[in-house]
Please model this.
Amino acid sequence: MAVGGTLLPALVGFFQGAAALQAKTGRIELTISNHLTLNRTMEAASRPRAQEIDSGDYSDPASSVNLFLAGSAHDEELGKEANLDAEWHKGFHDLLRRAVDAGHGEHSISALTEVLRTPDRAA
Model:
């Protein structure tokens, strides 16, 4: 489940990027090298995020929840600009807002783990 929980959103992100590029250029072949670079970035970023989650210390963020929430407006803009269905982002945006509401805005994005593990949606 942990791998699938990572794979499906990553694939949908790839498909959305492909649809946006196809709308602009007619070809998605150009995305493959960027996608592979992102995979290497995810590998490098996962180790420190795992350490944060294991320690429960989210106080030294490389990227904060607030930063990702601010970027969520760009997801909506891309959807409108490229005439894409970006509805699938709303769950992620809601998760970011819930994390901010729970006091994690200035914490590492890894703090989303605290919100995800709380079934009553309070952290």
Summary: The two ends are 22 Å apart (CA to CA). The domain at 2-116 is CATH 1.10.1040.10 (N-(1-d-carboxylethyl)-l-norvaline Dehydrogenase; domain 2). The first helix runs from residue 2 to 25.
